[in-house]
Q: What sequence folds into this?
């Protein structure tokens, strides 16, 4: 069982991208290490060989020169002299009948020569312990008069050094591969463990537990950043889900009760024995007005959804915001005056904005509507409503303020949620969606809504980013 | 008037057909796009009411084809797709007006009246007179019984729209769309206040009122009698 799991894990390890990456990296690394070591070999062991070859060539030229100037006797004399030197030099001079004339080799080495006359061979050296077979390398040449000359070097020490270098270089390569492999495994296993965490958390979230978050190691590396980004995304999704659930609940509440009222009224009128034509007419009329209210709620919800979905951006165009605000003010002015109020309008000229005309108008009208409903003299206000639009630096602020009772600070963030109607205005007409639409429409244009105190009254400011000129 | 209703929802079609017949129109009905197109091309209708989403051939393509064949019959789109973009698409395809479902029947009737009237060759009017009320569209002046009446620019446009549709019922939505260019209904009925202001200037000091409220529908400007 344990082995099975281990096997599965290993199989998985081979499939991971980190492991593949580690392997690719390792291959590159090993290639460069081998190149480097090759260079080291060339400059050390290679150099030793080249030095030997060079020395043999020089001596060969020298001996051939002596033979040309002094004939065989000088050559034999020189070779005999040099052979006595206990150095690593090897010599052999023979006549065409195979008699050794001089030198410290006993016979012509049996190995096959290269085209230039080079031979690798072993020779027997006599010393105090007896005989010793040693490796040598030499070059042979036929001298005029059919004499055989071989000049060589004993290469036992060089071979030993060469072997030492070669084997240490081989070990270095082996170690590099081994360490790289282990490092790659550890690295990928480590990464894999963290990715496994992410995958595990994702699966749990898909399983329905939206409150789960991916662990962050705290090193701030890319994986941490990924985890943080995913966590932020989850945060948003969760907020949206909660929002949606609230909306669904609220819709259920706000649409169900009027639907229920509507149904009850129709039913009661229908089953009542003594309903008159007048009763029927009245019930039907109220049914229509109830349906209209439902439609208004529904349309408001749609507008908000549209603004929030962001596809209203497609129908954005350059508009004259000053005109838009003035038109909105003008539409509401008679209504405000009829209720004994005043609308003061102060709009900067020629404000331009890339905007969705419908939604922005609707947002301003909704705010004005709220100002009228909640800032009316009956509620203790002086019904002075001010609508202004100004540009300061990079922001355009559309401000609507009334003289009503305002909204307590602690409830301000709350009122922009859908269907929220403060207790004080539960029974006033309205869908409870007005400010939510204002917020959604402002967000669509990249702005924010601020609620402030007009002392007394409420100030609603739509703060929008102004276009760059 | 002969009206062709092209609508696949039979209940909705029955509702519209019945209402229109009761209002004195002759109504034919087609239940899909192909049937609608052939009827529209063959029959001599004064007006077409077309649903946008139809089986076999959708409303937009139906109207486009109709226009390519040279038919100029006024078309009113009825659709559940109510965004400004949808409206623009409908009007570009050759529709003359666009009404979003659900709608009040009076709204439909009022719009039909306006459309059919518009289909008649329209001479460029610079002055319109109804009874003793006169509007000068070029000079932007209004007089009643010889007396000059001072109107705000928006009130002028409101009166202009009413007078261009003298005798017809004009709904609040139509006024919002045509005078204010809003394609949504504000939460409060602001139009009524504007109308009562306009009445104050046009009708208040005169014996016979010209602006009439049509209950459950809207307004109508017409001479007495």
A:
């Amino acid at each position: 069982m344990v082995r099975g799991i281990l096997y599965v894990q290993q199989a998985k390890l081979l499939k991971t991208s980190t492991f593949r990456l580690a392997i690719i990296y390792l291959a590159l690394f090993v290639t460069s290490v081998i190149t480097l070591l090759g260079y080291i070999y060339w400059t050390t062991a290679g150099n030793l060989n080249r030095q030997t070859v060079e020395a043999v060539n020089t001596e060969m030229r020298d001996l051939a020169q002596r033979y040309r100037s002094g004939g065989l006797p000088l050559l034999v004399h020189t070779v005999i002299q040099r052979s006595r030197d206990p150095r690593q030099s090897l010599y052999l001079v023979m006549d065409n009948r195979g008699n050794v004339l001089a030198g410290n080799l006993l016979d012509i080495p049996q190995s096959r020569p290269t085209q230039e006359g080079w031979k690798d061979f072993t020779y027997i050296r006599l010393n105090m312990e007896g005989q010793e077979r040693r490796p040598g390398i030499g070059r042979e040449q036929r001298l005029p008069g059919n004499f055989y000359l071989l000049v060589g070097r004993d290469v036992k020490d060089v071979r030993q050094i060469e072997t030492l270098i070669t084997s240490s270089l081989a070990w270095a390569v082996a170690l590099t591969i081994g360490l790289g492999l282990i490092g790659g495994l550890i690295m990928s296993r480590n990464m894999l463990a963290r990715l496994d965490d992410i995958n595990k958390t994702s699966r749990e979230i898909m399983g329905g537990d939206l409150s789960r978050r991916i662990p962050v190691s705290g090193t701030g590396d890319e994986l941490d950043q990924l985890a943080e980004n995913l966590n932020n995304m989850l945060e948003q999704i969760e907020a949206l889900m909660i929002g949606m659930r609230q909306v669904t609940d609220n819709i259920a509440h706000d649409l169900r009760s009027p639907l229920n009222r509507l149904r009850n009224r129709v039913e009661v009128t229908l089953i009542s024995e003594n309903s008159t034509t007048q009763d029927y007419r009245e019930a039907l009329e109220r049914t229509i007005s109830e349906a209209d209210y439902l439609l208004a709620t529904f349309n408001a919800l749609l507008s908000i959804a549209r603004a929030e979905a962001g596809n209203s951006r497609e129908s954005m165009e350059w508009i004259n915001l000053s005109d838009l605000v003035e038109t909105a003010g003008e539409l509401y002015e008679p209504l405000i005056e009829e209720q004994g109020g005043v609308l003061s309008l102060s709009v900067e000229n020629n404000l331009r904005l890339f905007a969705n005309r419908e939604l922005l108008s609707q947002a301003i009208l909704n705010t004005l509507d709220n100002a009228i409903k909640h800032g009316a003299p009956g509620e203790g206000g002086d019904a002075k409503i001010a609508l202004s639009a100004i540009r300061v630096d990079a922001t355009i602020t559309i401000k609507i303020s009334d003289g009503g009772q305002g909204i307590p600070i602690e409830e301000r963030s709350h009122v922009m949620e859908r269907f929220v109607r403060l207790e004080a205005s539960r029974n006033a007409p309205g869908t409870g969606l007005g400010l939510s639409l204002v917020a959604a429409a402002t967000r669509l244009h990249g702005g924010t809504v601020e609620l402030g105190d007009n002392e007394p009254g409420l100030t609603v400011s739509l703060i929008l980013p102004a276009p760059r000129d | 008037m002969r009206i062709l209703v092209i609508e696949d929802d039979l209940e909705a079609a029955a509702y519209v057909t019945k209402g229109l017949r009761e209002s004195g129109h002759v109504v034919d009905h087609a239940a899909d796009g192909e049937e609608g197109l052939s009827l529209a091309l063959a029959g001599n209708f004064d007006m077409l009411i077309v649903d946008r989403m139809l089986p076999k051939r959708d409303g937009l393509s139906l109207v486009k084809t109709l226009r390519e064949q040279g038919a100029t019959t006024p078309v009113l789109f009825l659709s559940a797709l109510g965004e400004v973009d949808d409206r623009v698409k409908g009007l570009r395809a050759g529709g003359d007006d666009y009404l979003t479902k659900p709608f009040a029947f009076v709204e439909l009737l009022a719009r039909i009246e306006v459309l059919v009237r518009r289909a008649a060759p329209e001479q460029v009017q610079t002055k319109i007179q109804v009874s003793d009320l006169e509007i000068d569209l070029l000079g932007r002046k209004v007089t009643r019984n010889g007396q000059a009446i001072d109107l705000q620019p928006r009130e002028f446009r409101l009166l202009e729209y009413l007078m261009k549709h003298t005798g017809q019922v004009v709904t609040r939505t139509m006024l919002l769309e045509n005078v204010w260019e809003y394609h949504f209904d504000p939460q409060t009925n602001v139009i009524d206040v504007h109308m009562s202001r306009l009445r104050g200037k046009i009708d208040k000091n005169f014996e016979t009122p010209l602006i009439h409220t049509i209950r459950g529908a809207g307004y109508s400007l017409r001479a007495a009698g």
